[in-house]
Design a protein that fits this description.
The complex is a heterotrimer of chains A (533), B (432) and C (413). Chain A has 533 residues and is α/β, with parallel strands linked by helices. Chain A contains 18 helices and 22 strands. Chain A folds into 3 domains: 3-235, P-loop containing nucleotide triphosphate hydrolases (Rossmann fold), CATH 3.40.50.300; 240-330 and 416-496, Rossmann fold, CATH 3.40.50.300; 346-415, no CATH class. Helices cover 32% and strands 24% of the residues of chain A. In chain A, helix 14 (401-412) packs parallel to helix 15 (431-446). The radius of gyration of chain A is 24 Å and the shape is globular. Chain B is mostly helical and 432 residues long. Helix content of chain B is 65%, strand content 4%. Chain B is built from 16 helices and 5 strands. Chain B has helices spanning 28-46, 74-97, 104-122, 130-156, 164-182, 185-209, 214-237, 241-244, 264-269, 273-291, 293-303, 305-310, 315-342, 353-363, 368-391, 397-412, and strands at 53-57, 70-73, 127-129, 253-254, 270-271. In chain B, helix 1 runs antiparallel to helix 2 (74-97), helix 4 packs across helix 14 and helix 11 (293-303) packs across helix 13. Chain B starts with 27 loop residues before the first helix and ends in a 20-residue tail after the last helix. With 413 residues, chain C is mostly helical. Chain C is 69% helix and 0% strand. Chain C is built from 17 helices and no strands. The chains are: A alpha/beta (533), B mainly alpha (432), C mainly alpha (413). Chains in contact: A-B, A-C, B-C. Chains A and C meet through helix 8, helix 10, helix 11, strand 18 and helix 14 of A and helix 11 and helix 12 of C.
């Protein structure tokens, strides 16, 4: 099946998410749609899938115009989609999930679950998946859930399969397996639209690459093109991600973490006897595939989740404290998901800038709050952090992601700190803000503050870290120097100890990973932040 | 580039299993059972007047075959029950120490025994009719159960239905008026769901189409239903009471054979059509929700509307349909208040039953059978209160009447197990 | 290495636009009026009154009689309908604001004082609901809290002989405390166990009314020797003083209501506690990360909300009712929800909405007497107004108005 998009334009209010986009997907082809988060890739695919109605433009299937008013039409036309946030009902079984929407019945509308089970087993066998039809979705690891999504699409005879950022939640190992599945599908004649911002994967599997930037197609590229060229096309200029930073001047150790254990609701240890030291004036990055306990580690420091073990910051035990006490002891904390945990969307910028400081003596006025002081504080922070806003009274939810993040970081840095913790400090943030935020973080280090960064982006880890602690399944696999090659870090993220990882990386320099491992490694990985329509 | 080679793993990674720590032990169940057991033994058993007997009639006076009443010595019976209860409590303690769960049926048995002990104590030296108590409980449960089913239908698709109260009320009103005018109870029975349906249209319009906060709409629709029915009652029904508000009453129809079952037969199978409709509804709903294409789609919409949308299920259409269907079901239940039970329509005669129905739905964990069970429990508590106020007991009837509400509070507070509703319940679905 | 950049869609944020000039502000105000909440609010009232009018006309005997020969003399139907509806609404106005047919000025303004009397507990209870709303909690249980406030302040008021001023203050305070406890139960349960406050407060309403019913059977409450379910009368010292002299029923409770409104304004927009209330209501997760204890705030919010509702009960009892009956709280607690919605949970709006509702109730009673139109039509009007205001989209569809700018939309949604 040949799929063609002609002049697709989609606006959200004043924002043009897709601007006259043309795209042709030939049969049996893996067509990579490359672009940064927010470039408009997902919007385009949601248009194709009938979830959004385009303001103008046309979709052609086998050179005939097709009317796609909703997902039902898309599915009918042979278009399947695996969404970035899986579209699976957590309490359903695999068989129920696969049959949903095109259920086979035994008269009177009674579900024929046996037929669905058979279909799951068949497709599962065809692609070499090991998926149990009666397993409940919420009990399955993310990697397996993704396979359920693929089975779902194939069960409806998808001729074109859209994969939206499919590797965001996978380990390098699982990514390799997914790439193999994509090749199998291509061999069977299925076309694939592969949406990603990860160059290495594109180069590994794509037949054709279309690069999108700010809602427009900026060009086609050959998979053989060097990564730097693709990157430049993607971001619109040659990018220097490396932050100018002087070598760290670590002072005395400020934070001692010993045998820290965090247990989740089911009783599993998500942080498993973690120990490390952090000195003043150094940046320690916690690397790892999402869902290996890094987020919980950061939350445990702020006492958001209960922990056992010991964390001593400048002589004071933090385990067993309240969030308030930890903050008052001088811990600055930038949460992983700023709009969820960092900001109150409907509060003004000024209010958000004092969200954890409202009780501070600076902002007290009589029995209540000193609104003038809060306003002048906001004006100062807005200037200092170059926050693009209409003013202190604008609701924070109206700011762009980068500016929202600046509000959070500005707030956390606006008091004397004994420790600065930032989880995914630049996720979903524009390039300009990334550079700004990275510089501020390094500056904070140079002020002598110990800094802990949690990041799943290896580039960010390499750019910022003086030392890297790699986490896998709740444990620290090893703590290595900041300039450790990414191949080695990648292997460590799959649980391979440092020395062994070095050896493997030396033997197989071009392969991301060769280690077969249980796909449940990435279990419980949370969803990544999506594109804002 | 990164080819995936078939190289076998260098060595199987001895991936450290995530350490599993047993979940916290809860002493709630043993604590509650032990306290209740002690109460049964000391207050109901030792505290019962010695030598007195408790007498329970097992047949209605009108029954052709009269079963001989059950007469038990109050004190001895309750001491025995108290000891049994304490043994069960001891067992739950042992289970908790071994970190095992006590089976649900045992706890249910404990509850039944305890309630029986309470009854024996309350009627010590007196008598009461067990069949009357059971039948009364069932009848009181009918509108609650239909209301709860209405709630289940709405909420399984993700729309909170606080308006059950209003739906019961308009159903009761329509049934009374139509049955009076046509002199036909069955016409009234048909009118009730239509009235519920109309109120449901409003609920759907505001919550599904205009995405207004569902709790607000529900609360306000209840006010509207009270206002409308009271206004029409005062302005139209009262002056023409004979013509408009004197409906015939539904007559019980005995089901051959089944009605002959001792004790339960007359209670369950000598009832009106509405009660039989309840039996059918609970079965149809259960199969419908959990075994059919329709149910699968409804549940998908209530749990994860985006997922339903991406497989081509029209989310808001499903919701719209379920809301009106649920409202009609609750309206149908309202008919019982007038033509099935009381006869005439009276101002605000639903008297908060819609809210109890809501509680029954939650206590029943959004399932038809659970809702029915909870409705029966509430019906029992209410009937017991009135029975005991006749018999005369030391417990004021107001406290008995409070029981369903207190139970519900305890239930939602997790003292009777966790309840988990549909994930997208109460969240409007707005595309794009 | 640039493959894992995650920049933002709005990569180049627009430069901050200049402050709007006063001219622009005025025109934006005009736009808000024409397409925004002011117009839709007015139209919501119009729609409600029209529908109410249709109902009033439809049940009027003369109107139905005229409808019988509609095709012969259509004018009769319209005339009868106009007569019936205008008569009812005129009576409503006369009973709510100004009885322009009264013989003396003092009598003419009596309706206004009645409106004030009726709206006093309503305003306070609505403030209770609003405080919870703004903190993201639904206090459907104001009714129960009003009952508890009335019960306890009543008990203290008719049992203990205390000096003037002290007596009324003590009675008010215990009423406030009783309401706080009753609301606090829901708050603490929500904070500790996650029990949904809507369900818990609904259930506690019933528990409170059964408790009241039982108390009215006890000798501590009943008038000695009486079998009536009615309590003793509050001692004079514990009664709220009258506001406009003995001719009118309005008491200083109304001033208390205004003070309460001012206090709630200060609490929600100026105090640190209110800042935390609002933060927890708008985003509990971010609040938690900012060191605000969501559980504690939930409990505090319900305590505060319950306290206000308890005050409403105390004011109703010590000012207007003076003794307890089963129906002491009337429907104050439920009406409070609609009033809070109508007032958009802002203290100023609530005072206005409370007076409006008080007016409708007082006027409704008058209307029932004068024209025989049942007072229940007022409930219909109230429900319709709130529904239409909550769904401005529907109102615009009905009147074919253009969609407004995004800023104005969905205050209640």
């Amino acid at each position: 099946m040949k799929l063609e998009l002609r002049g697709i334009t989609k606006r959200f209010g004043p924002l043009v998410a897709n601007d006259r986009i043309d795209l042709v997907v030939e049969p049996g082809q893996i067509h990579a749609l490359l672009g940064e988060n927010g470039a408009g890739k997902s919007t385009l695919m949601n248009v194709l899938f009938g979830l959004y109605e385009p303001d103008s433009g046309q979709i052609l299937i086998d050179d005939k115009p097709a009317k796609i008013k909703g997902p039902a039409d898309a599915l009918e036309a042979g278009i399947g989609m695996v969404h970035q946030h899986f579209m699976l009902v957590p309490v359903f079984t695999v068989a129920e999930s696969v049959m949903l929407g095109h259920e086979s019945t035994r008269g009177a509308g009674l579900l024929d679950l046996d037929a669905a089970r058979r279909q799951v087993r068949e497709l599962s066998a065809r692609f070499g998946f090991d998926v149990e039809p009666d397993a409940v979705i919420e009990d399955l690891p993310v990697g397996v859930q993704q396979r359920v999504e693929i089975i779902k699409a194939m069960a409806r005879d998808a001729k074109v399969l859209i994969l939206d950022e499919p590797t965001a939640v996978l380990t390098p190992q699982e990514t390799d397996e997914l790439i193999e599945i994509m090749r199998q599908l291509r061999a069977a004649g299925t076309s694939i639209v592969f949406i990603t911002h990860k160059l290495r994967e594109v180069k590994a599997v794509a037949d054709v690459i279309t690069v999108i930037r700010r809602g427009r197609v900026v060009g086609q590229a050959d998979p053989g093109a060097p990564e730097s060229e693709l990157a430049a096309m993607m971001v619109g200029r040659s990018v220097m991600l490396q932050v100018d930073k002087a070598p760290a001047q670590p002072g005395e150790v400020a934070l001692f973490v010993r045998d820290l254990v965090v247990t989740d609701r089911t009783g599993a240890r998500v942080v498993d006897h973690v120990s490390f030291d952090l000195a003043r004036g150094e940046i320690l990055a916690i690397a790892g595939v999402q869902g290996n306990g890094q987020s919980e580690l950061a939350e445990a420091i702020l006492a958001l989740v209960p922990a056992t073990g010991s964390m001593v910051l400048e002589g004071r035990e933090l385990v067993g404290s309240s969030v308030r006490e930890v903050l008052d002891h001088g811990v600055g904390f930038v949460p992983e998901d700023r709009s969820h945990d960092g900001l109150v969307g409907e509060f003004t910028v000024a209010e958000n800038l004092v969200l954890d400081l409202f009780a501070d003596a600076r902002f007290r006025g009589g029995l209540g709050m000193d609104l003038a002081a809060i306003k002048s504080n906001a004006e100062a922070r807005i200037a200092e952090f170059d926050i693009r806003t209409r003013g202190p009274e604008q609701p924070a939810e109206r700011l762009s992601g980068g500016n929202q993040q600046k509000v959070v970081v500005a707030r956390e840095m606006s008091r004397p700190l004994r420790l600065f913790v930032a989880s995914q400090p630049t996720r979903g943030v524009d390039v300009g803000s990334i550079e700004f935020l990275h510089r501020r973080i390094v500056a904070e280090r140079d002020n002598g503050t110990p800094v802990l960064i949690v990041s799943t982006e290896l580039d960010e880890v390499s750019a910022l870290a003086d030392r890297v602690a790699v986490m896998f399944r709740g444990r620290i696999v090893g703590i290595v120097p900041g300039d450790t090659p990414r191949d080695v870090l990648g292997l460590m993220m799959a649980g391979v100890p440092y020395e062994e990882a070095q050896r493997h990386a030396a033997e197989h320099p071009t392969t991301e990973t060769l280690i077969e491992q249980d796909p449940s490694a990435a279990a419980a990985a949370g969803p990544e932040e999506g594109e804002v329509p | 580039m990164s080819t995936v080679t078939a190289t076998p793993p260098a060595q199987p990674l001895a991936a450290p299993e995530r350490g599993v720590v047993a979940p916290k032990v809860s002493w709630r169940v043993p604590g509650i059972t032990a306290a209740a057991g002690l109460l049964a033994l000391l207050a109901f058993g030792v505290g019962a007047p010695s030598g007195a007997h408790s007498r329970f009639d097992l047949s209605f006076r009108t029954d052709a075959v009269q079963l001989s009443p059950l007469v038990v010595p109050s004190q001895v019976t309750n001491i025995v029950i108290g000891v049994v209860c304490l043994l069960i409590a001891a067992f739950t303690v042992a289970q908790t120490v071994r970190r095992r769960r006590t089976p649900m049926w045992l706890l249910a048995g404990f509850g039944l025994l305890w309630v029986f002990a309470f009854l024996v104590w309350a009627v010590a030296g007196k008598q009461t009719s067990l069949v009357d108590l059971l039948q009364g409980s069932l009848l009181l449960a009918v509108p609650l159960a239909f209301g709860a089913f209405g709630g289940v239908l709405c909420e399984r698709s993700g729309v909170v239905n606080i308006a059950i109260e209003g739906q019961l009320l308009v159903g009761a009103f329509a049934a009374a008026v139509v049955a009076s005018v046509t002199h036909n109870v069955y016409a009234g029975l048909l009118a009730a769901p239509v009235a519920g349906y109309l109120l449901g249209l409003l609920l759907a319009l505001f919550t599904v189409r205009y995405a207004v906060n569902q709790i607000i709409v529900g609360v306000v629709l209840n006010v509207l239903a009270v206002g409308l029915t009271s206004f029409l009652f005062s302005a139209v029904l009262k002056p023409n009471s004979a013509r408009l508000n004197t409906p015939p009453l539904m007559q019980p129809i005995a089901i051959p054979l089944l009605e002959k079952i001792p004790v339960l037969g007359p209670v369950l199978f000598r009832q009106t059509v509405i009660v039989y409709a309840l039996y059918i509804a609970v079965a149809v709903l259960t199969i419908g929700l959990f075994r059919t294409r329709w149910g699968l789609r409804v549940r998908a919409v209530g749990e994860h509307p985006e997922a339903a949308d991406t497989v081509g299920i029209p989310v808001n259409k499903v919701r719209w349909r379920n809301v009106v269907m649920g409202s009609a079901t609750a309206g149908f239940g309202g008919a019982f208040l007038t033509i099935g039970y009381i006869g005439q329509f009276g101002q605000e005669m639903s008297g908060g039953r819609g809210y109890i129905a809501l509680a029954a739905m939650i206590l029943g964990r959004w399932t038809p059978f659970g809702s029915l069970g909870a409705a029966l429990l509430f019906g029992f508590a209410t009937k017991l209160a009135s029975v005991l106020s006749v018999v005369g007991t030391p417990v004021p009837s107001q406290f008995m009447l409070m029981l369903p509400y207190v139970l519900t509070v305890l239930a939602v507070a997790g003292f009777v197990g966790r309840v988990r509703g549909p994930a997208a319940d109460g969240v409007p679905y707005v595309k794009g | 290495m640039t493959d894992e950049l995650v920049p933002d869609r709005a990569a180049a944020p627009p430069a901050a636009p200049p402050e709007p000039s006063s001219e622009q502000r005025a025109s934006s105000w005009l736009r808000r009026v024409s397409s925004g909440e002011v117009l839709t609010t007015v139209l919501a009232f119009v729609l409600a009154l029209v529908i109410g009018g249709i109902l009033i006309a439809a049940v009027d005997k003369k109107v139905t009689a005229a409808a019988g020969y509609f095709f012969a003399r259509p004018g009769d139907l319209l005339g009868a309908a106009w007569h019936s509806v205008s008569g009812a609404y005129a009576a409503l106005f006369r009973g709510a604001v100004l009885d322009y047919q009264a013989t003396t000025v003092l009598k003419a303004i009596r309706p206004l004082t009645e409106t004030i009397t009726t709206s006093t507990p309503l305003i306070i209870a609505s403030l209770a609901v609003a405080v919870a709303f703004r903190a993201g909690l639904f206090n459907i249980g104001a009714q129960g809290q009003v009952i508890m406030g009335a019960v306890v302040s009543g008990y203290v008021g008719f049992t203990f002989h205390l000096p003037p001023v002290v007596a009324v203050l003590v009675a008010l305070v215990v009423g406030v405390l009783a309401g706080a406890v009753w609301g606090g139960i829901a708050g603490v349960l929500k904070a500790r166990t996650g029990a949904h406050e809507v369900i818990v407060t609904i259930m506690l309403n019933y528990v409170a009314s059964f408790l009241l019913a039982w108390l009215l059977t006890t000798s501590a409450f009943r008038v000695h020797g009486s079998q009536e379910p009615k309590s003793q009368t509050v001692l004079t010292n514990a009664q709220l003083p009258l506001l406009f002299g003995s001719q009118y029923r309005a008491t200083w409770g109304f001033v208390l209501a205004l003070v309460a409104a001012a206090f709630v304004w200060w609490l929600m927009s100026r105090s640190r506690l209110g800042f935390q209330f609002r933060a927890v209501g708008a985003n509990p997760y971010a609040s938690r990360t900012a060191g605000i204890s969501v559980a504690r705030m939930t409990a505090y919010v319900m305590l505060a909300s319950g306290a206000l509702a308890g005050l409403a009960g105390a004011v109703q009892l010590l000012g207007t009712s003076k003794y307890l009956t089963d129906g002491i709280a009337g429907t104050i607690g439920f009406d409070a929800i609609t009033v809070a919605l109508l007032g958009r949970s802002k203290p100023g709006g609530i005072v206005a909405a409370g007076l409006l509702y008080g007016g409708l109730s007082a006027g409704g009673r008058f209307m029932e007497v004068v024209t025989g139109t049942p007072i229940d039509i007022v409930l219909v009007l109230q429900a319709l107004v709130v529904l239409f205001i909550a769904a401005p989209g529907l109102v615009r569809t009905i009147f074919r108005l253009p969609a407004p700018s995004a800023d104005v939309e969905g205050a209640l949604a």
